[in-house]
Design goal:
The chain is α+β, with helices and mostly antiparallel strands. It folds into two domains: 10-157 and 201-275, Phosphatase 2c, domain 1 (4-Layer Sandwich), CATH 3.60.40.10; 160-197, no CATH class. 23% of the residues lie in helices and 31% in strands. α1 packs antiparallel against α2 (91-106). The N and C termini lie far apart (45 Å).
């Protein structure tokens, strides 16, 4: 691990034509400073009839999580999912392929030690003279849309069922000194090993991948944002992305001072409909 000083945000901008329209795309990415590279990943992929935007959030590895090719297990899992999402197949199928690949290569041992990643995917699809939106989410990555009247989150909500969250809080209250990564592996096995207690499941954790999906018709949206949860976005903050992200690291330093990981890796991808 390196020092916990986060990297400055790297930004990327593109005008991506598709069909008779286009997307004006903006990307913000910043590593937490705790690893050799960000454990998040992102994708902007034009493909026949659509443009795919994705944000991937690799889950902080334990000491037992294998590294691959010089990358820790979190960074590797996020990049595996990003790579499979480049295939011109439906997002749920691509994520299922990534899930199977991760489990085939490192799907043994304790759940918490497996390389796994969260994911949020937005497919902007040409439909006649307009563009529909297909959203697929695994885990706690986020998707927001601007429908013309304001911003709302799609596929949001708690990662776990109410009962699982209650049991997890009880365990944490009984183990206040547990390390947030190394100290929870046993509790993962006891409390979270049943995929049914997850509302959606991370990619690379269970044989059966549970996804949340949503659809927006042409004319019902004009901008979409996908993000890792490190961006800490809400319906209120997503509408002022540049301002919010500019202050994010400063706010983290105050609100999470002394935490094991005061800064998170962050990736945000925004796509706004534009004339071709």
């Amino acid at each position: 691990m390196t020092t916990a000083r986060p990297d400055p945000f790297t930004t990327w901008r593109a005008h991506v034509p598709f069909g008779d329209a286009a997307l004006d795309v903006d990307v913000w990415s910043s590593a937490s400073g705790r690893g050799v590279t960000s454990q998040d990943a992102w994708l902007v992929a034009p493909m026949p009839g659509r443009v795919r935007l994705a944000a991937l959030d690799g889950i902080t590895p334990t000491a037992a999580t294998p590294s691959v090719g010089g990358l820790d297990g979190a960074a590797w899992a996020a990049r595996v999912a990003a790579a499979t999402l480049e295939a011109p197949v439906p997002a749920h199928e691509a994520l299922a392929r990534a899930n199977a690949f991760l489990l085939e290569h490192h799907g043994v041992g304790l759940l918490r030690d497996r390389p796994h990643t969260m994911a949020a995917v937005a497919d902007v699809v040409t439909v006649g003279g307009g563009a529909s939106l297909e959203v697929t989410v695994a885990g706690d990555c986020q998707v927001f849309v601007d429908d013309g009247d304001g911003w709302l989150e799609l596929c949001g909500g708690p990662l776990l069922t109410d009962e699982a969250r209650r049991r997890w809080r009880v365990w944490h209250d009984a183990n206040p000194g547990a390390h947030p990564v190394e100290g929870v592996a046993g509790a993962y096995e006891r409390l979270l090993a049943d995929p049914a207690v997850w509302r959606t499941t991370p990619v690379g954790l269970f044989d059966d991948l549970a996804l949340a999906r949503a659809h927006r018709d042409p004319g019902s949206w004009r901008q979409v944002v996908v993000a890792s949860d490190g961006a800490r976005l809400t319906d209120a903050s997503v509408g002022r992305l540049s301002e919010w992200l500019a202050g994010l690291r400063r706010n983290e330093a105050v609100e999470h001072a002394g935490a094991f990981k005061p800064h998170d890796d962050v990736v945000v991808v925004s796509g706004r409909l534009a004339p071709g």
